[in-house]
């Protein structure tokens, strides 16, 4: 596992494995398999305003890191899941930086990824202003269809993917055959969706949920696809279509129904000073997936995911802001040390009491987040 900022003279960071109690000789090859596009993300934070025409604004912070599907891959790997990614990479300097960071620093398996000479890396510039972000992206379609590039995916406990109206699951589409192969070998499919710029929000997207175990949209997306007027009503509509339905609702937290256990839960968001929301949704999805694979109660899964995304938005850097178990342990120790006796503090201690047993087994040098840097690896 990768090592973040070290304690004293530690040289390597021992791994913390949240699925250790499930490991067996006939295990799947990996815990999580992912496919998608990797971007080089360049992130500016701490802007008081966006520049007007002909003017310049200085940012307080800047970082660069692998983005796109890399946000999910890094988040899953830092939470101790054995993670494999199938993605196209350019042989340009941006592509080399992203490949090196994911493989060497973050411990993501890239055996199903390929480098393509002459194809340039997609790039996104993200600007965070007033707790929101605006992005500019440039890139081209991958040189090869996903299933042709991936071939036979590794046997996995779970697959995380984004649903698409253009490339539906279950239709034999060359872009999605790999996911169907993974599902046939026992992988649980956890799905999210992207923003529909057409504004049509086609029902065909939800029809694909028959192939999925979990669905984790945000409230705006969930209400648009289900034609409902509230996050709660959207949740109920989705719970009729998929075993695990989760709706994230920004500052209002998250709500979920797990039909496999009969649990229904709503949890509040943690109040934090958010400086960069890039990748927070991916961190949430990775945390829910980890908790589901580990067999946690639904309330613990949602509270844990809320914590992980709250830790992520307090740092800039997209994928590299994703917390590791060292960050989670540090936060829990700080939470326990608070002595103000307020109702809010007592609520946090109650909701996160399940971390006690987990944190007690987290190694002292466990993975911590890395700082987003420009053109070099972090903390190496």
Give an account of the 3D structure.
The chain has 380 residues and is of the alpha/beta class. The protein has a domain at 20-38 and 67-113 and 140-324: 3-Layer(aba) Sandwich (UDP-N-acetylmuramoyl-L-alanine:D-glutamate ligase), CATH 3.40.1190.20. 30% of the residues lie in helices and 20% in strands. Helix 1 crosses helix 8 (280-294), helix 6 packs across helix 7 (231-239) and helix 8 runs antiparallel to helix 9 (298-313). The two termini are 13 Å apart.
List keywords for this structure.
12 helices, four-stranded mixed beta sheet, 380 residues, UDP-N-acetylmuramoyl-L-alanine:D-glutamate ligase, disordered N terminus, 30% helix, disordered C terminus, 14 strands, globular, eight-stranded mixed beta sheet, alpha/beta
Short description:
This protein has 380 residues and is an alpha/beta fold.
Spell out the blueprint of helices and strands:
Layout: E1 30-35, E2 38-47, E3 61-68, H1 69-78, E4 83-86, E5 88-90, H2 93-105, E6 114-116, E7 123-129, E8 132-138, H3 146-150, E9 156-162, H4 177-184, E10 188-192, H5 204-207, E11 214-215, H6 219-226, H7 231-239, E12 244-248, E13 254-258, E14 263-267, H8 280-294, H9 298-313, H10 325-337, H11 343-351, H12 355-359
Parallel strand pairs: 1-4, 1-9, 2-7, 5-6, 9-10, 10-11, 11-12
Antiparallel strand pairs: 2-3, 7-8, 12-13, 13-14
Helix pairs in contact: 1-8, 6-7, 8-9
